[in-house]
Amino acid sequence: xxxxxxxxxxxxxxxxxxxxxxxxxxxxxxxxxxxxxxxxxxxxxxxxxxxxxxxxxxxxxxxxxxxxxxxxxxxxxxxxxxxxxxxxxxxxxxxxxxxxxxxxxxxxxxxxxxxxxxxxxxxxxxxxxxxxxxxxxxxxxxxxxxxxxxxxxxxxxxxxxxxxxxxxxxxxxxxxxxxxxxxxxxxxxxxxxxxxxxxxxxxxxxxxxxxxxxxxxxxxxxxxxxxxxxxxxxxxxxxxxxxxxxxxxxxxxxxxxxxxxxxxxxxxxxxxxxxxxxxxxxxxxxxxxxxxxxxxxxx
Length: 299
Hints:
With 299 residues, the protein is mainly beta. It folds into three domains: 1-40, no CATH class; 57-172, Beta Barrel (Lipocalin), CATH 2.40.128; 174-299, Lipocalin (Beta Barrel), CATH 2.40.128.630. It is 6% helix and 42% strand. It contains one helix and 26 strands. The protein has one helix at 2-20; strands spanning 22-26, 34-38, 62-64, 67-72, 76-81, 87-92, 102-104, 107-111, 116-121, 127-132, 142-144, 147-152, 156-161, 167-172, 188-190, 193-197, 202-207, 213-218, 233-235, 238-242, 248-252, 258-262, 271-273, 276-280, 286-290, 296-298. The protein has a four-stranded antiparallel sheet with strand order 3-4-5-6, with no helix packed on it. Strands 7-8-9-10 form a four-stranded antiparallel sheet, with no helix packed on it. A hairpin with a 5-residue loop joins β21 and β22. The two termini are 18 Å apart. The relative contact order is 0.08.
């Protein structure tokens, strides 16, 4: 898993380098085109130098107006000017911010390591509201029709009003496993339902207005890591999702019935392009599958 996370970070780092750096093309006759990446600036996001055990700074950078906003898993969020790297604002949060944030109408929504879920003004860094979740926030939120849906680290799902943080519903599951992957599924919304995976190995479909269970399907059967941390990907009447040490599933969106499976686990969402599904596995493979049958095209 560490190698996969490292690969993902290298890809993100390369992307940011291209975004914030000058890319110079050189040509010499018919010679090969080359790109030179020039670093414009670099900043430490922590308030003080951190010399303790390695921690995972996995929050995705947020681009807003002329700002780039970045969190760390130690002490909070910082916003910088995209061009100069000058600090514009900072918000210190004990335990930092691990989960990806979502930006909506100039407001950042995210779970944090201090046991709260936040709505923060992206322009100034002021807190609009915060809601206690009694666990670290490690799952990316989904915003739909004035509601933010997310999972907390204690295997609980929430639906809150985005304007004031008022709780609409709460749903939780008990996981008695000794080992879990430190992560949480990002919910997907389709029609009247919310779909999310849990660390007990189940994918569930919940009524998005009430949080009541429509159906559940056990995906993770491993004795080690059963977690369903990948975001469910919805395409037409099907839903595609994997468990970490289990399989990749194509299920009926309506009732969770299995359409096909592939014997490779994973923790990232699939990518669908026309009739082909691309999938990164927990065994360090990248695969292309037929969307309709799950047949392997290449790996």
